[in-house]
Amino acid sequence: MATSTSSKTQVTRSERKLARQKRDRRKKSLMKKAYEYSKMCNADICVGIRIRESGHVFIFSADASNFWSFVGSQLGSYYPTPFHKTERDL
């Protein structure tokens, strides 16, 4: 019986790993799409993603006019510290 419990745990771990990888791919894709939109439409873009499970915040900013700069300053005291990405990071 102990083996069935550990195999269930193993399946759960692999499922979590796959779900995390899928989430990260979607996050990266969303940020790339936002960057493409900012270039094609000459728009200032700010995308914020908060992972509920861990509380991590990811902010992507493609902002030539600094219109969205207040977002970073407001989240400066947030814990865990937000991850800031710009168009140079993609």
Explain this structure to me?
With about 90 residues, this protein is of the alpha+beta class. It has one domain (about 1-90): 3-Layer(aba) Sandwich (SRF-like), CATH 3.40.1810. The chain has helices at about 1-40, 70-75; strands spanning about 45-50, 55-60, 85. It has a three-stranded mixed beta sheet, with helices on one face. Strand 1 and strand 2 form a beta hairpin. The chain is elongated and about 55 Å long. It starts with a helix and ends with a strand.
Helix content: 40-55%
What is the element string, with H for helices and E for strands? HEEHE
- Class by alpha and beta content: alpha+beta
Number of domains: 1
User: Tally of extended strands?
Assistant: 3
C-alpha Rg, in Å?
18 Å
What is the general shape? elongated
Q: Within the CATH hierarchy, at the fold level, what is the topology?
A: SRF-like
What kind of sheet is the major sheet?
3 strands, mixed
Mean pLDDT: 84
Number of helical regions: 2
Pfam families: SRF-TF (PF00319)
Protein name: MADS-box domain-containing protein
Main location: nucleus
Subcellular location: Nucleus
